[in-house]
Amino acid sequence: MASKKFLVDIDLKNNQLTNASLQNLLGNPATAGKQPGWIYFDTGANTAYVWTGSSWLDLGRYYTHATPGAINLPLGGANVLATLVTNNEGHVTSYTTRTLTLADLGYSAYVHPPYTPVNQTLSGATVLASFTSDAIGSVTGFTTRTLTAANIGAAPTVHTHVLTDVTDVTATKDEVNYLDLSAQAGLASGMVLRATGANSMAWSQILNDAVNNSLTQGWSSNKIQTELNNITSAISGGLIFQGGYDVATNVPNLDVAPSPTIKKGWTYVATTAGLFFTEQLEPGDEIIAAQDAPTALTHWVRIQKNVDVASETVIGLVQIATQAQTNAGTLDQFYAITPLKLKTYVDTRVVPATTAVAGIIRIATQTEVNTGTDNTIAVTPLTLATAFTNKLPVQATETTLGIAELATQAETDAGTDDLRIVTPLKLKVYVAAKIAAIPGVGDATETTKGVVEIATQAEVNAGTLDSPYAVTPLKLKTLLDTRVGGYAQDVGDGAATAIAVTHNLNTKDVSVTIYENSTGEEMEAQVVRTSVNVVTVTFNVAPTAAQYRVVIKK
Questions:
Q1: Could you read off the pLDDT of 433-459 as tens digits, one per residue?
Q2: Where are the chain's structural domains?
Q3: What backbone phi and psi angles, to 5 degrees, belong to 524?
């Protein structure tokens, strides 16, 4: 593939490099003599590489946001989070739940010891005679008896038991037992009567919210709910996914009038693009409540999903180029140049142009072009054309280059007009007549008619001979062409990429400009001065018929 060689760095003056491609290679090339920052595109790996000076850096690696999927996990009552798994970016990928028990909270549940079931029917005159119980008040045995008329014939005697220590719960045949609770001191809501021995009972409180470890007392439902609420509060602030958030319509309401029930750690994923308070969100972005009842943008943590590497068309992340990378000028996307590195680069690269060194050059004024004595400034086509316009139309004299009228035969024969010029024919006629009229003729001078010798091209170019030498129109044209010559030619046939242009200016000291005929826009191609009379221009793609025009100037 043809290329144009640049002996100096290219300064684009803050302009963009558009429609550019990296050098395409298959595999890492040899790095001998290469500077850090050398970059190419690997057609096999389909990625770009940059040479760091010691290894190749893959520029195709970039961050890909994980997409674990939406999670909607309601937690309430005794249903709590059991496990939570996240990836390296902190996104939840899986979870499990469990149901809290009193054992989880450090409390042992009461287990009643096994007993043989009792199924005894008491009816008619069959009544309970006695029963026994164990230490926790469970019935372990009983007997029955049969009432007789004698047992119930006498008027009943009221037998009152004060239950400070019940030792007699067996009524006699003449007694009817009942409990007089009015005399019981220390009774409270929630107390029950239980057996404390084989023949004793006592009041006991089975509900006690103040105890944390008891085999005989438990908590009320209010106490249990309070403890569950404390557990829920203890795990608040962790990431709890609440679902999608329609930013465009603010559903659910997180912006205009946020719900005060929002808790720290509640997480939402944007499903549409729009402003969240004053910040733009895109689909896939995450917002996490940083406190309970958030009401401002600062109360939320925003995680953007769509941050990409910056390019000519995408706003994103860039890396500041080193001075060496700036000087090399081979990096394109992802790298940015600071003002300091750009100034350092320009200060060390921009030098004045000379006949031997390419560099910057000042445009000459019209007066400087007309004078023609300064060899360190450049002439534009306009100032050059103006200089020729000012010089050529003037009347030619012996000391001034200009134009002159052709003399008639009569004017040639008269020999009195020093402004008109004589053609070879008229001169031949005149000389022939004079020679025929005189016996002998000498060399012509400025004051004497005579014979002249036609000067050679070298003599004309040297410009040191005077009379009796004469200059022909061809040699004069040749001299002028070598001093101010130029050549232009249309190129392109739709097939050739390397085109030789023959200019016949007899020198390699020519400047070459290429422009597109249809637009007049100047183009850059590879230019080689093949010989003193030929310039070869090479294109990567063969130009169409007469697509470009090549202009060659001395």
A1: 877 666 556 778 888 877 888 999 999
A2: 24-62+310-349, 126-205, 391-481, 485-553
A3: -115, 130
